[in-house]
Amino acid sequence: MSIAFRGMAGDTVDVDLFGRADAEANAKLLADAARGLVALGRVGAGRDDAREWLDLLDGIQISQRGPGIALRASIPAKTMESFVAQMIASRPHATEAQAPVPAAGTSAVPRKPVESSRKGAQPTGSASPGGSPSRPAPAPQSTRTPSDDAP
User: Fold this and answer.
1) 59 in helix, strand or coil?
2) What's the N-to-C CA distance of the chain in angstroms?
3) Residue 73: which of 85, 55, 89, 90 has the closest Cα?
4) CA 20 to 30 Å from 150, out of 15, 35, 108, 144?
5) Does the pLDDT of residue 34 top 80, yes or no?
């Protein structure tokens, strides 16, 4: 399988993704899977708070000829503006990301980590493979339970 990507930004953002499978049957499976993902996205985009995704999904065209697959998407300017506005609104402000500053007249004394009395004991908590602590996963946003506004 080989893949090529091309994108162009202007009044719209146009994206082309070309793929070539090892056989026509595999290309058909990949194209059908991509169409299924777009259809699944349309189901999720039916909610009022995700309507701008419909414009994006409407602009996706998937075709397959022989072992070749082509995906073309054209994202309208108003949809891109909406996505950018959502990203900016969900980004934490610089003041929220900074560590708290101690109040005037107090001193911040760093705490010494507690060492285990067991020899060769591993520290508790999760750590990345490189040994440095990992950040916790972000909390899900806009999650709804089946009882919330269920259709």
Assistant:
1) coil
2) 41
3) 55
4) 35
5) yes
Q: What is the pLDDT of residues 89-108, one digit of tens each?
A: 887 765 555 555 555 555 55
Element holding 42 (H helix, E strand): helix 24-44
Q: Which pTM was predicted? A: 0.52
Q: Are 67 and 27 in contact (CB under 8 A)?
A: yes
Tokens read off for 75 = 């994202």
Q: How far is CA 25 from CA 1, 37, 65, in A?
A: 13, 19, 10
Does the pLDDT value for residue 143 go beyond 80?
no
Strands lying side by side in the sheet with 13-20:
2-9, 13-20, 68-75, 60-65
**Residue 138 identity (one-letter amino acid):** P
SS3 state at 33: helix
